[in-house]
């Protein structure tokens, strides 16, 4: 916001209150009401307004209070933001921040990982950082990008990851995965909260952080699996959502001969996110279930 | 109203009418794919809104506002290119009929989900307000869009943010085949918009180009002067069906009769007198030349289909 006057924020309770998760705390006091706009509860309306402001040269950053609420402005995102440049040449440089993920007992409407709704939509870019450096670097890249970017940030990582702010020039390139940890026995292809989980594995496995979910880094997936010959997709989105299907399709069509075992998926079942601790803990991937999934993959 | 404004309104209305008569013929000949939508009977509103805007203003026209495009400087040849799906048209053959914009002319392309463009235009007006620019953003809303949530959210944001947005309410009696009385209880949109969102609104006869122009111009200038969002309801009757496949046989004869003698082009022509003939001649010439130009344009290249999905390709 300091480096670009065109950047302004809009969303629910992001002003004085600082946002439901405190993400914009202090910005209202620092930059004022013209740059940090509290909106009525109208996601379709203010995402639409962000598109209009972007059309007229601004760089709006929208905050959705929870990623689950991406259902409300869905039409504005997939109909207007995604299709406008292709059919008219008008760029729509908006960023939509959306806290996703579970583990906070949020239940069916406050803990979803709906990034898969937007994966595969031409015209959209979908990113999801799993580290502090990428949270900063991807956000800077997303704001500088001329296309609509959906920025999913895991609400559990808000508190779990600790560290200092990366240097101001840090940028994470959109569309590029990163090998977070090298390994030779298998590749764990993951993003967001899955990165933290995968780094806890004691096996000799490579951890590939997709970082961008759409369009995702196909070459990086094929390159890593080409070396390890085994692949496990780990995601917090329900099994038939997220990116798992796209990764499996890539491996089946272009990576078939690289594989020594059928590619595996560790993801929650195809249900909404449950509330009760006993249910949510069973629903989410854990160190225990990940360990078992890797053992199975390596034993094939 | 100065004579040149009246003549320009007439020219714009006639351009739309003549263009649409030509595209209807092309459609029936199978030379235009998809469907055909027109603004028969509503040309005065489209022309008046287009002409009421200044150079730096922006607009999002809908289905029945071709004259607004022409008023913004969109060429007739480019409009034909879009209807014909040509590769060098405004949407490169990727979208058809009146679904096109003109980035350099401040025209946002129509989105079929009517109501979507209401918040978009409010956002453009917000950008102008943020930068302190004396510019205005305008769009249209029909009775159908008035049933859509986006419209309510957009109007509310416009009012809360007090932005220079102007809403032209196209009361043409129907949303596809559904009469306004089945869309809403109170069909006086100006009353609703004023009472519901505290946005100043007037209701005028949309078949009278001069009345429509005066009302819209005044609304645009109030918005420009910092008085916040404004609305003008223009009452007309949709001349044709929703689209080419719809014969509008459901419109009662009595309703049709109540609009007899209210063709907006004939009404204005009677006021202009002999000067109108010169305009008529020039418009026919322009339409024919533009169609020939558009027909000579290249077809789109399937190999380029994926170009432009992103402004910054990966």
Task: Draw up the topology in text.
The complex is a heterodimer of chains A (300) and B (314).
Chain A: E1 7-11, H1 27-31, E2 36-38, H2 43-55, E3 59-63, H3 74-81, H4 84-88, E4 95-100, E5 125-127, H5 132-144, E6 149-154, H6 155-160, E7 178-181, E8 186-190, H7 193-198, E9 205-209, E10 212-214, H8 218-228, E11 231-234, H9 244-254, E12 264-266, H10 277-283, H11 287-299
Parallel strand pairs in A: 1-2, 1-3, 3-4, 4-6, 5-6, 8-9, 8-11, 11-12
Antiparallel strand pairs in A: 5-10, 7-9
Helix pairs in contact in A: 2-3
Chain B: H1 3-28, H2 43-52, E1 58-60, H3 66-71, H4 76-84, H5 117-131, E2 137-142, H6 149-161, E3 165-171, E4 174-175, E5 178-179, H7 180-183, H8 189-197, E6 201-205, H9 209-224, E7 230-235, H10 253-258, H11 264-272, H12 275-295
Parallel strand pairs in B: 1-2, 2-3, 3-7, 6-7
Antiparallel strand pairs in B: 4-5
Helix pairs in contact in B: 1-2, 1-11, 1-12, 2-9, 4-12, 5-6
Structure commentary:
The complex is a heterodimer of chains A (300) and B (314). Chain A folds into 2 domains: 7-160, Rossmann fold; 178-299, Rossmann fold (3-Layer(aba) Sandwich). Chain A is 33% helix and 17% strand. The mean pLDDT of chain A is 97. In chain A, helix 2 runs parallel beside helix 3. With 300 residues, chain A is α/β, with parallel strands linked by helices. Chain B is α/β, with parallel strands linked by helices and 314 residues long. Chain B has one domain (3-296): Rossmann fold (3-Layer(aba) Sandwich). In chain B, 46% of the residues lie in helices and 10% in strands. Chain B has helices at 3-28, 43-52, 66-71, 76-84, 117-131, 149-161, 180-183, 189-197, 209-224, 253-258, 264-272, 275-295; strands spanning 58-60, 137-142, 165-171, 174-175, 178-179, 201-205, 230-235. In chain B, helix 1 packs antiparallel against helix 11 and helix 1 packs across helix 12. The longest helix of chain B is centred in the first third of the chain and has 26 residues, at 3-28. Chain B starts with a helix and ends in a 19-residue tail after the last helix. Classes of the chains: A alpha/beta (300), B alpha/beta (314). Chains A and B meet through helix 2, helix 3 and helix 4 of A and helix 5 and helix 6 of B.
């Amino acid at each position: 916001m300091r480096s670009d006057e065109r950047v302004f924020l809009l969303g629910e309770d992001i002003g004085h209150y600082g946002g439901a998760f405190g993400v914009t705390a202090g910005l209202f006091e620092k930059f004022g009401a013209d740059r940090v706009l509290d909106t009525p509860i109208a996601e379709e309306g203010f995402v639409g307004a962000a598109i209009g402001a972007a059309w007229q040269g601004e760089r709006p950053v929208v905050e959705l209070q929870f990623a689950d609420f991406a259902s409300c402005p869905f039409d504005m995102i997939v109909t207007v933001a995604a299709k406008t440049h292709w059919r008219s040449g008008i760029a729509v440089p908006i960023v939509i921040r959306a806290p996703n993920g579970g583990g906070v007992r949020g239940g069916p409407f406050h803990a979803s990982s709906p990034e898969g709704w937007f994966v595969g939509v031409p015209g959209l870019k979908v990113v999801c950082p799993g580290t502090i450096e990428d949270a900063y670097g991807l956000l800077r890249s997303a704001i500088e990008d001329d296309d609509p970017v959906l920025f999913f940030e895991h609400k559990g990582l808000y508190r779990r990851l600790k560290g200092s702010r990366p240097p101001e020039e840090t940028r994470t390139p959109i569309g590029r995965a990163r090998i977070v940890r090298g390994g030779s026995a298998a590749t764990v292809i993951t993003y967001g909260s899955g990165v933290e989980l995968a780094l806890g594995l004691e096996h000799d496995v490579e951890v590939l952080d997709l970082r961008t979910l759409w369009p995702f880094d196909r070459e990086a997936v094929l390159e890593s699996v080409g070396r390890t010959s085994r692949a496990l997709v780990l995601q917090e989105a329900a099994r038939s959502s997220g990116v798992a299907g796209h990764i499996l399709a890539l491996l089946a069509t272009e990576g078939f001969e690289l594989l020594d075992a059928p590619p595996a998926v560790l993801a929650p079942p195809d249900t909404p996110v449950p509330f009760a601790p006993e249910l949510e803990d069973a629903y989410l991937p854990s160190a225990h279930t990940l360990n078992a999934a890797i053992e199975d993959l390596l034993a094939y | 109203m100065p004579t040149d404004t009246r003549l320009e309104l007439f020219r714009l209305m006639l351009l739309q009418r003549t263009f649409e008569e030509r595209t209807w013929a092309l459609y029936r000949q199978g030379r235009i794919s998809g469907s055909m939508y027109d603004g028969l009977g509503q040309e005065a509103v489209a022309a008046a809104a287009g002409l009421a805007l200044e150079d730096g203003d922006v607009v999002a026209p809908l289905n029945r506002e071709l004259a607004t495009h022409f008023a913004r400087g969109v060429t007739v040849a480019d409009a034909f290119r879009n209807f014909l799906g040509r590769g060098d048209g405004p949407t490169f053959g990727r979208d058809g009929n009146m679904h096109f914009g003109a980035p350099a002319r401040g025209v946002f392309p129509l989105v079929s989900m009517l109501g979507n463009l209401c918040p978009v235009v409010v956002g453009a007006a917000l950008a102008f307000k943020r930068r302190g620019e004396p510019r205005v953003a305008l769009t249209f809303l029909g009775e159908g869009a008035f049933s859509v949530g986006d419209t309510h959210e957009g109007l509310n944001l416009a009012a809360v943010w007090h932005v220079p947005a102007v809403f032209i309410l196209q009361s043409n009696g129907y949303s596809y085949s559904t009469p306004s009385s089945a869309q809403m209880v109170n069909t006086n949109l100006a009353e609703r918009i004023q009472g519901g969102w505290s946005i100043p609104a007037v209701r005028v006869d949309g078949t009278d180009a001069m009345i429509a122009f005066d009302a819209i111009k005044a609304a645009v200038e109030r918005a420009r002067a910092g008085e916040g969002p404004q609305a003008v309801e223009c009452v007309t009757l949709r001349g044709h069906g929703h689209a080419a496949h719809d014969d509008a046989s459901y419109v009662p004869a009595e309703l049709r009769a109540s609009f007899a003698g209210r063709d907006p082009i004939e009404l204005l022509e009677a006021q202009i007198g002999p000067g109108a003939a010169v305009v008529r001649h020039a418009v026919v010439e322009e339409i024919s030349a533009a169609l020939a130009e558009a027909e000579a344009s290249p077809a789109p290249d399937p190999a380029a289909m994926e170009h432009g999905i992103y402004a910054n390709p990966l």
